[in-house]
Amino acid sequence: MAANAAMAVALVVTDLGVVTVETAARGFLFCWYLATALWAVFALEYTGRGPVMTRRRTAVVVGIAPLTGGVSIGLGITGVDNATVSLLVIPLQVTVISLSAFGVVLVARSGVTYDDLPLGTVAVLSNVIDVDQGLLLATGILGITAVAFLVTQLRLGLFDSDPSTGHLARETLLDQMSESVILVDRRGQLLDVNDTAVETFGIERPIEHGQTLESVVGEVPNDATDGPITLETRAGKREFEWRHSDLTRRGDTVGRIHALRDVTERRTDEQRLSVLNRVLRHNLRNDLDAIRAYAETLTDDEEVDPGAAGEQIEETARGVAAIGDTVASAEQLLKRDGVDRQTVDLVELAQRVVSAQLEEHPDARGDVSGAADQIRTDPRVLETVLEELVENALKHADVDPSVEVVVSESDDGVTIRVRDNGPGIPEHERAVLLQGEETPLNHGSGLGLWLVYWGVKRLGGNLSFGTGSPRGSVVTVSVPSLEAA
Q1: pTM of the entire structure?
Q2: Which among 178, 326, 451, 479 counts the fewest CB atoms within 10 Å?
Q3: Are the C-beta atoms of 327 and 279 separated by less than 8 Å?
Q4: At what angle do helices 379-395 and 306-334 cross, to 10 degrees?
């Protein structure tokens, strides 16, 4: 822009008669050569095409301008008309002009392919240059460029192949990947993203200038981070495996590629297999052993009350059946791909769930309070979560069972608090869920809370535990409003 301003000054001072036309023309020509070289450096750096523009390479490209301008002006001043000297100058002039035209092609391609160049800018620029001057300049550049392309094609066969096919194949492959792929430059600013990243994190195209990776995903792990990382997405909180690699060209680092694979469902499947393995090996075996022991006392021990033993067998069998029902609910909950986004009235849903559970527990009390706007979520999954929490609260209450469901709005959805007056959820049960993993020495006692955990995770929400006053427990479920598919 400084060189362009100098050219404008040269035209003004010529009109004012401050300097001669010849002197102004020489200054104009020198600045024009310099501007074209600077433009070429900008285009190469901006579009990422061609060699990496180090300081040394930049100095070489920009240095061609004063050399060409100086020699051309010197020939005009000295009046030398030598064919050999002219043949040496013409390649320099063609080089400068070709670099300028090449820069225009690169930036135009970037604007068309990646929507980086607003069309309004082109319309404004078209009004800056006089029509006659613009046509003359464009004709000269296009003529020299056409000759250069013709010579290159005849000598090197540059256009015998279609290089755009390779670019199209790479871009298509990138957009078809299930991973979110994000490309940043050396300063960590976003350059490009694939369709999966756009859908997952809600990135808007064209990418806003200066937008960073951290502003898009919320958190950037360091090289020491081990295991999946939880990120906020358009579908709520999801777990991702994060891989990255430097993007280099001829040994120079020009950016970094980040690939984020959503492993939420895979992690849930691993947890489910681990929990079911524990249930089969531990819970069911113990319950069946207890049933067998009670049955043996009925035949071997005449002093045992058959009624009491029968009640124990029946109660234990109901527990086994309940485990089977929970396993079936978990299978139904997790076997579907994705979530079914529907508009849901949380207050009405909570009232329906509480009423159904009170019919199953006629001696219990239940209440639903609060208010919230309708949200978009999966009603079946959310209803399963609420059913399990309310049933768990009423079933494990030792005296005068009661449950209260409080619904309230949050920044991105709703918050549901389920309060009871029972003995509370054991600390080790909470720890297992919050860690998301069972071990031989640290595991839960059933499947109910795991079903709640998996359902909340599928909805992209959060699950937390608290203690009621004066007793009981408070389970808090935060569920985001999911956008339409």
Answers
A1: 0.55
A2: 178
A3: yes
A4: 160
Q: Which two tokens stand for residue 63?
A: 């240095």
Q: Is the peptide bond before 470 cis (omega within 30 degrees of 0)?
A: yes
Q: Which domains, and CATH codes, for the chain?
A: 2-128 (no CATH), 177-262 (3.30.450.20), 266-480 (3.30.565.10)
> Tell me: the pLDDT tens digits for 366-418?
999 998 888 888 888 899 899 989 988 888 777 888 999 999 988 888 999 99
d(CA 134, CA 415): 63
CA 269 to chain centre: 23
Highest average pLDDT, of 102-116, 135-149, 233-247, comes from 233-247
HEC string of the chain?
A: CHHHHHHHHHHHHHHHCCCCHHHHHHHHHHHHHHHHHHHHHHHHHHHCCCCCCCHHHHHHHHHHHHHHHHHHHHHHHHCCCCHHHHHHHHHHHHHHHHHHHHHHHHHHHHHHHHCCCCHHHHHHHCCCCCHHHHHHHHHHHHHHHHHHHHHHHHHHCCCCCCHHHHHHHHHHHHHHCCCEEEEEECCCEEEEECHHHHHHHCCCCCCCCCCEHHHHHCCCCCCCCCCCEEEEECCEEEEEEEEEEEEEECCEEEEEEEEEEECHHHHHHHHHHHHHHHHHHHHHHHHHHHHHHHHHHHHHCCCCCHHHHHHHHHHHHHHHHHHHHHHHHHHHHHCCCCCCCEEECHHHHHHHHHHHHHHHCCCCEEEEEECCCCEEECHHHHHHHHHHHHHHHHHCCCCCCEEEEEEEECCCEEEEEEEECCCCCCHHHHHHHHHCCCCCCCCCCCCHHHHHHHHHHHCCCEEEEEECCCCCEEEEEEEECCCCC
Q: How far apart (Å, rounded) are the C-alpha atoms in residues 46 and 240?
A: 31
Say how far apart CA 454 and CA 267 lie, in whole Å.
10
349: pLDDT strictly greater than 90: yes
